[in-house]
TrEMBL record:
Species whose genome carries this gene: Sphaerisporangium rufum
Gene3D superfamilies: Winged helix-like DNA-binding domain superfamily/Winged helix DNA-binding domain (1.10.10.10)
Stretches the record annotates as Disordered: 143-169
Name of encoding gene: marR_3
Organism superkingdom: Bacteria
GO molecular function: DNA-binding transcription factor activity
Protein's GO biological process: response to stress
Alphabetical list of InterPro entries matching this protein: HTH_MarR-typ, MarR/SlyA-like, WH-like_DNA-bd_sf, WH_DNA-bd_sf
Name by which UniProt lists this protein: MarR family transcriptional regulator
Every HTH marR-type domain range: 7-143
SMART domains referenced in this protein's UniProt entry, alphabetically: HTH_MARR
Length: 169
């Protein structure tokens, strides 16, 4: 409930703080995307295609860190809206590549601008230098966790324990 105090013990957990801030940021971004008839997942696909070029569903799933089975419906929606197309993969005709269309690129340019505006209120309490520092630190944490995930563990651990607890190096 807004205005209610948060438990201090939770506020001492960085993951709790990050999740709560992310919740606010996601709300702002989702509201912006909904005005354009899209969801967060649609925006992520369009952005990945713009950043990396045509991609298979497997590649998109890797870029977005999601299960590829979650992509089909989203890509269907984008294709029906004329924002992407599926084309045969020239390397393997059994596969298709998802390609960002011109309408998708034009919409994405508008979405990027709108997304930046939607995020401003979230970071208003920070100076420009603090925003840059926050972004740098968040990227470092994300990169470390991405790397650890690829290696099968978590930062500071040698491997995940079977009981869900971490083993220290």
């Amino acid at each position: 409930m807004p205005g209610s105090p948060r438990p201090p013990s939770l506020l001492a957990l960085h993951s709790y703080l990050a999740s709560q801030v992310a919740k606010y940021g996601t709300r702002h971004l989702e509201a912006t995307l909904e005005r354009h008839g899209l969801l967060l997942g649609h925006h992520a696909i369009l952005t990945a295609l713009d950043d990396f070029g045509p991609a298979s569903q497997r590649e998109l799933a890797g870029y977005l860190r999601i299960d590829k089975s979650h992509l089909s419906v989203r890509i269907d929606h984008l294709e029906a809206a004329g924002l992407v197309t599926r084309t045969p993969d020239p390397q393997d005709r059994r596969r298709h590549r998802v390609v960002l269309g011109e309408a998708g690129r034009v919409l994405l340019d508008r979405l990027h601008a709108a997304a930046r505006v939607s995020q401003r209120p979230l970071l208003d309490p920070l100076t420009d230098a603090e925003r840059l520092t926050l972004e740098t630190l968040l990227r470092r944490v994300l990169d470390a966790n991405d790397q650890a995930g690829e290696e099968g563990g978590a930062p500071g651990t040698s491997a995940p324990a079977s009981d869900g607890k971490e083993r220290q190096k």
